Amino acid sequence: MHRCYLPQAPFASGMLEVEGDEARHALRVMRLRVGDLCEVFDGAGQAARAQLVATTGNSAMSLKVVEMLPPMPPMADITLALAIPKGSNMDLIVQKAVELGVSRIIPLVTERTIVRIKPAEAADKAEKWRRTAMEACKQCGVNQLPVVEAPQSYKNFLQRADLPALRVQCAIVPHARPLREVLEAGRAAALRSCVLLIGPEGDFTPAEYAEGEAAGFTPTGLGPIILRVETAVFMAISAAGYALN
């Protein structure tokens, strides 16, 4: 069933008006017709099944709420903070991270980050990744739209006061603790939130590792094989979701 994203959807009113790209996609691409059913979610956790009752060309449509859908079970609050990878990998990572249940994505610029985003481009990049996150929510049935922040420096990130207590820095260092051990300790402490910090293709510098530990991040190994950035992201998120949910 086709899903539409409608921020701050007035479900209680019984009628929903969808305009712009969402309406054009539903009417032109998905070819919804009067009488068809679809799902509408507001990105804040609520969703409803609705019936298309009227259209205005291909740019707007009116929906009648048929029933509110039950809320999804609460999930662990997982923040993904990663150095921006090269190429189109960031789009893939955002998409799959949403499917795996992250609640926040924080793009970082570290010393060895290859991609350098100019300040004037940061807002546009973040908006592009937010659209990718929204499309992933539509496709996989997630009703809570993850927060995608604008790119920021590694140093500024480490100074934030809003990070959860369970702080995992995926690391290629001799003293790294096994990921399972760190996550099981978090589960034993009844923690339901964590932040996963993942570096660039060239890894964190020794100074960055030291700064991470000083900020409360535990160096954590993902096994004996050196993984590509996107593989490390998917493995870490999956393990954290399994351990904390």
Description:
The chain has helices spanning 20-29, 89-99, 119-140, 154-158, 179-188, 206-214, 229-244; strands at residues 3-5, 15-19, 37-41, 47-56, 60-68, 77-83, 104-109, 147-148, 152-153, 167-170, 177-178, 193-198, 218-221. With 245 residues, it is an alpha/beta fold. The strands form two sheets. Strands 6, 7, 8, 9, 10, 11, 12 and 13 form an eight-stranded parallel beta sheet that branches. Strand 4 and strand 5 (60-68) form a beta hairpin. The longest helix has 22 residues, at 119-140.
List the helices and strands and how they pair.
Elements: E1 3-5, E2 15-19, H1 20-29, E3 37-41, E4 47-56, E5 60-68, E6 77-83, H2 89-99, E7 104-109, H3 119-140, E8 147-148, E9 152-153, H4 154-158, E10 167-170, E11 177-178, H5 179-188, E12 193-198, H6 206-214, E13 218-221, H7 229-244
Helix pairs in contact: 2-3, 2-7, 5-7
- The overall pLDDT average reads 96
Distance between the termini: 27 Å
What structural class results from the helix and strand content? alpha/beta
Order of helices and strands: EEHEEEEHEHEEHEEHEHEH
Question: Which range does the strand content fall in?
Answer: 25-35%
Brief descriptors of the model:
alpha/beta, 245 residues, five-stranded mixed beta sheet
